[in-house]
Amino acid sequence: MDYIVDIKDIVTKFGATVVHDKISLHVKSGEIYAIVGPSGCGKSTLLRELVALHKPVSGSINILGYNLLDASYKQIQELRKKWGFLFQNGALFSSLSVYDNIALPLIEYTDLSSKFISKMVVYKLDLVGLKESDGSLFPSEISGGMVKKVALARALALEPRLLFLDEPTSGLDPISAREFDRLLLRLREFLSLSVVMVSHDLHSIRLTADRLAVIDDKHIVAQGSLDDIVNTHTPFINAFFDAYNTNPS
Amino acid sequence: MAQPLLVSHKNTASGKIEIDVSGNLTLNYISSIKRYIGELSFEGIDTVDINLDNIDNMDSSGAIFIDSISTQLKNQKINIICHQSEIIKNLALIHAKMKNINTCESVADKHSLLYNVGFQSVKAYKTFLSFLSFFGELNYSFYLLLLHPSKIRYKEIIFEINANIIKAFGIIAVTSFLVGVVVAYQSSIQLAKYGANIFIVDMLGLSILRELGPLITAIIIAGRSGSFFTAQIGAMKVTLEIDAMQTMGFDSMRFLVIPRIVALVLMMPVLIFIADISGLFGGMLVAKYQLGISASFFIGRFLEIISVKQFLVGIIKGPFFAFLIASIAIYHGLNVKNDTQSIGVNTTKSVVESIFAIIVCDAVFSIIFTVLGI
Ligand SMILES: Nc1ncnc2c1ncn2[C@@H]1O[C@H](COP(=O)(O)OP(=O)(O)O)[C@@H](O)[C@H]1O
Ligand SMILES: [Mg+2]
After folding, report:
1. Taking burial as the number of CB atoms within 10 A of a residue's CB, which of A102, B1, B11, B79 is the most buried?
2. Predicted ipTM?
3. pLDDT for A201-220, tens place per residue?
4. Domains in chain A, ordered, with CATH?
5. Nearest-CA residue for atom 23 of ligand 1
């Protein structure tokens, strides 16, 4: 029961295609948990299932103490304020400025004064390393790295305890990617977050993840700390960690 | 998650109030704490002690709230009492951060009327200039293509003719038919009063061939193809498709712009012809059932009165209208910025501006024809 995310025997199908065949994993409170696997193995789908954007065929998902698959619409709406989701491409609202993107959840879900909200937005901007003046820019006017930062600030707007990240460092240059990793670690400490992230970025995983799961061919083929995983041998793991073994920079 | 419990002890003698907060000092509860403090009476109080010793949880919004509590209690001295090291640490961190951030309230600057008028004028002027530049580029590309006709993208032109012209036949025929019926019906009542039934032919012939046919066609095509072009090209801008084409050396004028314009310009007369025929047919039906003018009599009178010139006057407007619709639509499509909102804005502009341009153009034609005595 100490797990913040606990999923058991998840089966996912699109039509006749089976994407997950009895996947189980759990994430402890305060942990950064990474999910890796070849492209198309269903990592994004798994994250979407965790935030109730998609329903698996069978299995159980227990998240923040709720049984997600049996939860009522009202309970899911409650839960939606308790987690943050960072989409792969940011998915910022293009008609709203950076400031309004972050303020929107606060305006919608709290009855705080606009003055206080403005303080919180500016604080969140600062937290992710953006300037207050960036707030007036629109999503079409900022770079890819900034989009991710704004999306992260938006995901953090409602002070969630749980954060989902879909390939947070993909599309970033290595420097911005490392910066993002450090930011994530800092936030974890600062906001006592738990994080579930999908990543292809070995550096990022090494730097941030406490534990990880490898999904391949519909199953979890390995789970545990990075050292545990490296010592498991499957074709995907071998290929994936080749870079790690030969070039442990 | 426990709602925070607030207890206050007031000691008027020493001018002191102590507020004990216990439970969760988190986002959801901030406004209730704020309200609680707002309802306290601070008469004769100059010191406020806020005791955070019994707090279970504090998130950053809670810390920001405590940090900024002096804005709510302007006239009192505030002491924060807390012995939990974690919370003290967080408060100190937030305090250090918030000090560097000067939350100036004016997110959107307010400008004077004069500024706004000037700003909008310059913006309109720049839009006009950029349209002219687009227009110039377009003509130059046309010229280049005419020198090398083999480079014309015939396949795209055929595709656009099918998508924008052939598929519009139905809607144009039906709309024009209905307009013919309505105009004929309205005027038949008046004409019958004067016993001038037969003049329905003159009226319909002139108005549909010269004005209504071309205008109805152009307005429908502006709504249909104009919005289609803008949204389609705008989406290509957002997905960076146009940039990709450019990097591969595909000239967007040659690949995207000219085929669409040529397709519309070539085929607009055909559409107007269809509008003319179905409008007249609608009028003829009304003439028969409302005024008792038989079809053969209608056609006989029509051939006698309406010269080919009237038909050509309407048809000649077609390519001009088509050019306006296509170039305005594509110009706005290319103007789309890197976001989805911009597609909507530009599509609206495209349709509104091209209908406006059509009507202005029609007025210019009227003047020219009058001067020339046509
Ligand atoms: N909405 C959908 N309809 C049908 N198939 C889908 C859908 N979404 C994902 N899939 C399939 O599920 C598989 C997993 O996709 P995804 O979770 O996006 O993979 P990845 O691990 O690369 O994030 C893919 O084979 C994809 O084709
Ligand atoms: Mg994915």
Report:
1. A102
2. 0.71
3. 888 999 999 999 999 989 99
4. 3-82+161-246 (3.40.50.300), 93-159 (no CATH)
5. A44
